[in-house]
Description:
Blueprint: E1 6-12, E2 17-24, H1 26-35, H2 43-63, E3 67-74, E4 79-86, E5 91-98, H3 108-112, E6 119-126, E7 136-141, H4 153-165, E8 169-175, E9 180-187, H5 201-204, H6 206-218, H7 222-227, H8 230-238, E10 243-245, E11 252-253, H9 259-269, H10 271-281, E12 284-287, E13 294-297, H11 299-305
Parallel strand pairs: 5-11
Antiparallel strand pairs: 1-2, 1-10, 2-9, 3-4, 3-6, 4-5, 6-7, 8-9, 12-13
Helix pairs in contact: 10-11
Amino acid sequence: MAGMDELHKFLFEGLPVRGMLVRLTDGWRELLRRRESLGAHPPEVRALLGEMTAAGVLMQANIKFNGALVLQIFGDGPVKLAVAEIQPELGFRATAKVVGEVAAGARLEALVNAQGQGRCAITLDPKDKLPGQQPYQGIVPLHGDRREPLQQVSQVLEHYMLQSEQLDTRLVLAADDHVAAGLLIQRLPVEGEGNLGQRNEDEIGLNEAFNRIATLAATLTREELLTLEPKTVLHRLFWEETLRLFDADHPRFACSCSRERVRNMLRGLGRDESESLIEERGEVEVGCEFCGLQYRFDAVDVGEMFTPARDQPPSTASVQ
């Protein structure tokens, strides 16, 4: 299945630890190809977006949320905003707003957190909102408990998981122009500890079990994560453990933009503003920042937007 986007979930038999491994290839390359029409991001920004996308897929699959998971990193460096959005079926898209020069080899601090004002936000936006229901959002700074700047997306998200969910987590992320990949290892929450069978806390120690597995995960190199197949990675890291592997899921690039959503945006601008754009440019052209698709509306399109349906002429298909 070389070239196919894959997400593998697994459990460590007899241990209070679970894991996931994602490898995005075809979908990740398609995302970057679509972005080229808007101007390619520098390689450092592409790597940042790849790590965020892989992490977002892991987090969405981990919580099984019926809505969009939106991972945002924003701050005061040349990257003003980086966004990865993952839908419940694991459709993903990502983009960034870059203002200014990106230094070669720049890491997270230089990209987003130059003056220490960078933040990471995780938003859960339900598909079927109840009246008055707002999306849930958690925000953490891009520094650790001792105020030291964090240099990797994985460190930021580990910190977030510990603060928001009280779950010990180890993340390893890597991305280039061909692959975006990630490994997540997480200590099971208390309610999962009843699945330990005959082993008890005195025999293995819950924290000790997680720490040992997390230490093994940390030996995974960037090169291995980017070049090896998922099952090869798991065997190389955990060959002494008994893993229970589940059927693979297949994330994919998917943009949720549509002509109707752009129409609604133009309606929100109002008739005067939309018609002034027509007068100035002859048409309204709106490009999706995620996939590069261009939506064009001429004077007739804009007129129809602001004409009540009952006042519009019948379509030619309905004329006898």
